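From the shared-data thread, chain only:
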Amino acid sequence: MTATPLLPRALYEEVADWLRQRIFNRELPPGTWIDEMRIAQELGISRTPLREAIKVLAAEGLVTMKVRRGAYVTEVSQQDLREVYELLALLEADAAEAACWRASDDDLAELARMHAELEAAADPRHGSRERFFELNEAFHLRILDLGHNRWRKQLVLDLRKVMKLNRHASLAKEGRIAESLAEHRAILEALRARDPRAAAEAVRRHFANGLQAAV
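Structure, as tokens:
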């Protein structure tokens, strides 16, 4: 039986990735009008795949469509942040509980190595803020993987896209990165102890403190 060849990614998906990264990198800050004509010219494409890409980002909550005004990068309100953080706390606490039972010793050793890299990235002498953001998210997503529930992970991925609109602000508070690292250590220690209640509580505390820094 001949295997069906993989189809190339649709152009609108590539454009969506490009726009998404510009939004996350603050090249298109919250509240920015998305100038379709200028962007289409910049990318050398028609406006059709661009509009399809904008629909994808609108479904993710990164773009807001305004009647007769076009598309804008979403501005996240304090209420939006509270709702997102509350849901993330519930979902990721549940994943941490499950990981206590399902993760192997090797899995937890890998998670500890990831945290060591995160600590190094936070070092102001030779670390990188962008690397810290990348590793911070990877640490959380790895716990979700260890919880073995793809539907829960998909919900978290969608919510985290909205949270990223404010992530720089939440970690810009003086001392917040050090606090975040300490909270990650508490999560890791609870997972190693196979204590689901402590793991879930450590995750909830982490998000509660993150929300307090963000609003």
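The two ends are 57 Å apart (CA to CA).
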